[in-house]
Amino acid sequence: MPDCLYRMARPEDVRVVHLDSFMAVYHRSSGLTHLITAPAPEILVTLGEAGMTFNALRESLADAYELGDLDDAALTARLDELVSAGLVSTA
Amino acid sequence: MMSDDTQNDPPNDPARGATSRRALMLGAVGATAIVSIRPALAQTAASVVTCEIPVPDPGRAGNYIAADGSLVPPGTQGAFAPAGRPFKGQDVKVALGGGGQLPGTSYEQNRAYTNYIRRLQSGTSGFTCFASLQMPRG
Lengths: 91, 138
Fold this sequence. Notes:
The complex is a heterodimer of chains A (91) and B (138).
Chain A: E1 5-8, E2 14-18, E3 23-27, E4 32-36, H1 40-47, E5 52-53, H2 54-64, E6 65-67, H3 72-85, E7 88-90
Antiparallel strand pairs in A: 1-5, 1-7, 2-3, 3-4
Chain B: E1 22-24, E2 34-37, H1 40-47, E3 52-53, E4 64-65, E5 71-72, E6 87-88, H2 89-96, H3 107-118, H4 127-134
Antiparallel strand pairs in B: 3-6, 4-5
């Protein structure tokens, strides 16, 4: 799905608490709480509610951060995790 | 409601205000950046709609259900044959709340079945589902 759009979950669907080195995200519809750590919060913020394609996300991350290991497979793995948790939707 | 809840804000941009680009590692493919916690209660709440209640309990399959919900020998006059398939939690919730009848039941049959469900005891198949229907939902 190279052109599919990845979007962060809607703010009303999650409750976010910032903790020291990670973030606790309560996902209302599943009743699950996810403890997420870098780079997951950064990916969520970059995607935003508007969402973006995989390639746009990769470019945005590379612009905003000094990526030590930019790797499509790793970014795909991180995105897949977020999608499985319901914190990112695809369209 | 949400505007005065500072903890409910969307994630703040970690890069905001940074004078230089922050280092970020994507991690290995096999690594994980997410740990999910599933409290037992949350799991119960999430499964309320899809959990099932057999009428009667498989341990007492074959028994008929009397009007008051008690189990009686098969063929007892005025009692109803077992339900063909378990009822969904959501259907039971509606029936118990008086908002409708259990699917495929007559008025009297529905009353007998719901009386049976109300009398479910801990350890009986369907009790956990019934109990979770009673819990107030947030």
